[in-house]
Amino acid sequence: MTDKRAAVEDMVGELRPGMTVGFGGWGSRRKPMAAVRAIVRAGIGDLTVVSYGGPDVGLLCAAGLVRKVVFGFVTLDSIALDPHFRAARQQGLEAMEVDEGMFYLGLLAASQRLPFLPTRAGLGSDVMRVNPQLRTVVSPYDDGEELVAMPALRLDAAFVHCNRADRHGNGQFLGPDPYFDELFLGAAERRFLTAERLVDPGRLTDEGPLSSVLVHRMLTDAVAEVPGGAHFTSCDPDYGRDEAFQRLYAGAAADPERWGAFSERFVHTDEAGYRAAVAEERSP
Amino acid sequence: MSQAAAVTRAEVCAVACAEAWRGDGEILASAFGTIPALGVRLARSTFAPDLVLTDGEAALVADTPPLATAPDDMVREAWLPYRKVFDVVWSGRRHVMMMASQIDVHGNQNISCVGDWHRPSAQLIGVRGSPGNTVHHTTSYWVPNHSPRVFVEAVDMVCGVGYDRAALTPGAARFHEIRVVVTNLAVLDFAGTERRLRLRSVHPGVEVADVIAATGCALEVPGHVPVSRRPTDDELALIRQVLDPGAARQAEVAS
Question: Do A140 and A12 share a structural domain?
Answer without folding.
Answer: no
